[in-house]
Amino acid sequence: MAAVEGEPDAFDAIVMAETRFHGEGYQDGYAEGVHAGVMEGRQYGVQQGASIGSEVGTYLGFAVMWQQLLRKTSGEKYSKKIKVLEQLIEMIQNFPLEDPVYDKLQDDLEKIRGRFKQVCSLLHIPSDLRLGSERISFSF
Amino acid sequence: MSWLQSAVSQCNEDVFDENADEMDIAQKEWKSAMEKRVKEGYREGIEAGKVLTLQQGFNQGYKEAVKVMFEYGQLKGTISALLSWCHQNKHSPAMLSEMTDLLNQLRKYEEYVLKNLNCVNPQPHVGDLLDTLNDMDLAHECIPVEQHNGTCAEFSTNCCRDNGTDSFQGECCGRTEGHKASERATLSRLKERTASMMEQLGLSPDILEHT
């Protein structure tokens, strides 16, 4: 009888030991994962944020400066140019730059890029001079 | 399943000496089976933990980087606009090369700031900061020696302040207050140079204040 009663206990012990060891591993892994997730996520976030921030900021600085240059030197004949510059500036100001989970980010960004190209062609700026002879890109 | 027998006999404590060798093997198998369980648990735990914080880390990194780099981008765009305008209006080569130089310095510094933002990388050292500034020939302009010493002290205090167990910020100290201060100083310096160029062109440098 003793053997028969002993067996379930032994199986229980094995199952419990397996669960316990698994659980111990899980806990260690979880703590590590929580930490690694922040680090890994942050790295992607920094890449993405830096790339978008720099690109959009460049368009804004460029547009605002050209607006001032045209106003200073121009009369009526620049009104079309000024209008398109204003549109670009407005698009950037309405862009939720600091929202990391904005769902239309790519769409909006494409529209801003399109408007920037339009601005450059209106102002007769060759592509190699648009952003100081260098396309904005980050290599990681 | 000999590790199972081993477990059973451990419970019953009726081990005969002549079985010792066999038991050794069984115990080893038991040990390796349990180590396997620990590893399995560890792997599952890592995945579960990561899922919880990946987005949080992403958001945190994104917000910080987008703000900082937007400001550099604005200045870069401003100078690029001036450069294209000066090209069109046939300004002096000296002015053009001054602008190109400014853009190059800005780009170099932008890369450096980006490196600091990536706190996963090893902690940037004050020496690296100075090397970069020396390369750029900016050190004399933006980091006076006494300020540099202050930066050193800030480095060590800031990096250890947040080492609490409940905080993920502990190792996230790639970009300290010391870095930020020197970054601001360099950015101001670059803005001042841009402003002085704008004044030479008869432009109001007011727009730089909003960047």
Describe this protein's structure.
The complex is a heterodimer of chains A (140) and B (211). Chain A has 140 residues and is mainly alpha-helical. Chain A has helices at residues 2-73, 79-94, 105-122, 127-130. The longest helix of chain A has 72 residues, at 2-73. In chain B, helix 1 crosses helix 2, helix 2 packs antiparallel against helix 3 and helix 3 runs antiparallel to helix 4 (126-136). Chain B is built from eight helices and no strands. Classes of the chains: A mainly alpha (140), B mainly alpha (211). Chains A and B meet through helix 1 of A and helix 1, helix 2 and helix 3 of B.
Q: What count of helical segments of chain B does DSSP give? A: 8
Shape of chain A: rod-shaped
| Major interchain interface with per-chain residue totals | A-B, 72 and 76 residues
CA-CA gap between termini of chain A = 69 Å
Q: What is the radius of gyration of chain A computed over CA atoms, rounded to a whole number of angstroms?
A: 29 Å
Coarse shape of chain B: rod-shaped
Total of DSSP H or I helical runs spanning 4+ residues of chain A: 4
Which percent range fits the helix content of chain A? over 70%
Question: How many beta-strand elements of chain A?
Answer: 0
Mean pLDDT across the residues of chain A is: 84
What does the largest sheet of chain A look like?
A: none
SSE order of chain B: HHHHHHHH
Q: Which sequence of SSEs, written as H and E, runs from N to C of chain A?
A: HHHH
Q: Which structural category do the helix and sheet elements of chain B fall into?
A: mainly alpha
Which spans of chain A of ≥5 residues are poorly predicted at pLDDT below 50?
A: 132-140
Oligomeric nature of the chains: heterodimer
Mean pLDDT of chain B: 73
Strand content of chain B: under 5%
Low-confidence stretches of chain B: 121-129, 138-173
Helix vs. strand class of chain A: mainly alpha
Main location (chain B): cytoplasm
GO cellular component, one term (chain B): cytoplasm
Protein name (chain B): Yae1 domain-containing protein 1
Domain Essential protein Yae1 N-terminal (chain B): 41-78
